[in-house]
C-alpha cells in the first residue's frame, strides 16, 4: 500500500510507503509513520510531477517485470478535491496509458480506455449510478460506438475542445 503524503490525513491503514514532495505533511505525522516502519520517499526536489505521478513511477519501478503487464493500480481519493489536483490525476492516466489505473472517489470511477482495444464494460447497477461519460484524453476518439446506453453512439467522433 502506497500513499501520496496528502492522503494520510484520511486513511486508517499503515502504508508501506509514503511518497511525494512532503509539502503538506507535518513532521510529527511523518515521524509517527516512520516509527511504524513505513518507508518514506521524499521527492521534494521534484516539483515537475504530481504526487500521484511520483507514486505510479515508484510502483512501476519496483513491480517485478513478469507482473508489469497485468498491473492494475487502484487510486482511492483521487477525485473530489482541488480541481488542479483532479486534472493532474487525469493527466497521470494519459502519461501512463500502458497501465491500468483506476481513479476512485465516493461517487465516481475513472479509467482510460486505450484506443487500440475493444472495450466491453458491464455495470453493476446496485453499486454504480445511472450515469456514464466518455471523454477523450490526449486525442479525439475517432470512431466511438456504444450499445446499452440511453443515447448510443455509432462510429461517432468525440473531441475535447
Structure description:
- The chain is an alpha/beta fold and 161 residues long.
- It has two domains: 2-112, Rossmann fold; 127-161, no CATH class.
- Helix content is 21%, strand content 19%.
- It has three helices and eight strands, in the order E-E-H-E-H-E-H-E-E-E-E.
- The protein has a three-stranded parallel sheet with strand order 1-2-3, sandwiched between helices. The chain has a three-stranded mixed sheet with strand order 4-5-6, with helices on one face. Strands 7-8 form a two-stranded antiparallel sheet.
Layout of strands and helices, then pairs:
Blueprint: E1 2-4, E2 17-20, H1 27-35, E3 39-42, H2 51-62, E4 72-76, H3 83-95, E5 100-104, E6 109-111, E7 141-144, E8 156-158
Parallel strand pairs: 1-2, 2-3, 4-5
Antiparallel strand pairs: 5-6, 7-8
Supply the helix-strand structural class: alpha/beta
Estimated share of beta-strand residues: 15-25%
Q: Any idea what the shape is?
A: elongated
Order of helices and strands, N to C?
Answer: EEHEHEHEEEE
Q: Could you name the CATH topology of the largest domain?
A: Rossmann fold
Largest sheet: 3 strands, parallel
Strand order of the largest sheet: 1-2-3
Extended strand count: 8
Whole-number tally of structural domains: 2
- Reading off the top of the CATH hierarchy, the class of the largest domain is best stated as Alpha Beta
The share of residues in helices is 10-25%
- What is the CA-CA span between the terminal residues? 37 Å
Tally of alpha and pi helices: 3
